Structure formats: structure tokens, C-alpha cells
């Protein structure tokens, strides 16, 4: 009797997964977009300081508002319509179970990148070696970054995959592709 406790998930044509070039392009587009958003968020505070409306340091309010803007851009916007970087590179993020990832999944994906243990360098290194071009964050959270027009070509069982490298043992769910998939 086969163990199906992890369930099943979609898989795509290998050419549909976003590679290093497209992912770097997304970062090079979205980081300046967020920096511009930060400057535009700070300008009203500067004006209110100049006109004497604000007499104390407003930086904590700025940072709260800016963090909210970053979250709105990189979580709900990315999962639904995509960021500017995703639009420019014609990419989308999908759940391995089908459809859009949840807000919780996307928030965890963002937090894993900010607080670790994964970072841009490790993600890109892993991405270059992964057959489905998933970053470690994507592997653990069950998400794929694929071409906007990509459709799943099949569904397979999820099995726990284990890797041992550099003194680390990593284990995460991985879809087993059907031998008959295109």
C-alpha cells in the first residue's frame, strides 16, 4: 500500500519554470520600485515637518507605513496580479496544490527571505541546481514561479525529498512526475 499522506501536486513543463535570469530581473525591477515607494512615503512627512504640523520624529510612523507598503506589494499584489517585476518578465507565482498561494504562504515566503535561513545568494545557488528551478523557500512552501501562460501538464504524488550537503540535511515535499508526462 502506497503512502499518500503528503497528497498530490501539480507539475509544469520544465521550460515553464523561471530561471536565474528572470528571477534576477524581477529583483532588479522590484527593489527600485520599493525604494521609490519609500521616498514617496517619506515626502508627506517631510512636508508636514516643514510646515510645523509635526514637531516630533515621525520615523516610527514612516517605517510602519513603509513596511505595510512592502508587505502589500510583495504578498497580496504578487499573489494576485503580480508585481511590476513579475509583469515585465511575464511570470506568476502558483501553489503546487493549484491556484494562487495563500496570504499566509506568501507572508512566510517573504519572512524566510528577510529573516533567513534563506537569502538571495543561497536561493540563486539552489535555483541553478534544482530541476524545477525552485528556490529553497519555494520548495518548503510548495510554490512555483512559472511563465504567466504556463498550465500544469500533470499531477503527481508528493514525497519527502532529502538532500545532504555542506553538513546540512534538508527535507521537503517534492512532486513525483509521471513517466507519461510530456
UniProtKB/TrEMBL annotation:
RDD domain span: 17-141
Transmembrane feature ranges: 33-54, 61-77, 110-127
Membrane topology of this protein: Multi-pass membrane protein
Keyword Disulfide bond: no
InterPro entries xrefs: Pra-immunoreactive, RDD
Pfam families given in the database record: RDD
Compartment(s): Cell membrane
Protein name stated in the entry: RDD family protein
Organism in which the protein naturally occurs: Roseiconus nitratireducens
Lineage of source species: Bacteria, Pseudomonadati, Planctomycetota, Planctomycetia, Pirellulales
Amino acid at each position: 500500500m502506497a503512502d499518500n499522506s503528503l497528497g498530490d501536486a501539480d507539475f509544469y513543463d520544465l521550460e515553464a519554470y523561471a530561471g536565474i535570469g528572470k528571477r534576477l530581473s524581477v529583483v532588479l525591477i522590484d527593489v527600485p520600485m520599493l525604494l521609490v515607494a519609500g521616498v514617496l512615503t517619506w515626502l508627506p512627512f517631510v512636508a508636514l515637518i516643514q510646515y510645523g504640523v509635526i514637531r516630533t520624529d515621525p520615523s516610527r510612523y514612516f517605517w510602519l507605513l513603509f513596511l505595510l507598503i512592502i508587505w502589500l506589494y510583495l504578498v497580496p499584489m504578487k499573489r494576485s496580479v503580480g508585481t511590476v517585476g513579475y509583469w515585465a518578465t511575464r511570470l506568476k507565482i502558483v501553489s503546487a496544490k493549484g491556484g494562487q498561494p495563500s496570504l499566509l504562504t506568501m507572508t512566510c515566503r517573504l519572512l524566510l527571505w528577510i529573516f533567513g535561513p534563506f537569502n538571495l545568494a543561497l536561493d540563486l545557488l539552489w535555483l541553478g541546481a534544482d530541476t524545477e528551478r525552485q528556490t529553497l523557500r519555494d520548495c518548503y512552501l510548495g510554490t512555483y514561479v512559472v511563465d504567466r501562460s504556463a498550465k500544469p501538464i500533470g499531477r503527481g504524488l508528493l514525497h519527502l525529498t532529502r538532500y545532504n550537503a555542506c553538513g546540512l540535511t534538508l527535507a521537503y515535499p517534492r512532486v513525483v512526475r509521471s513517466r507519461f508526462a510530456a
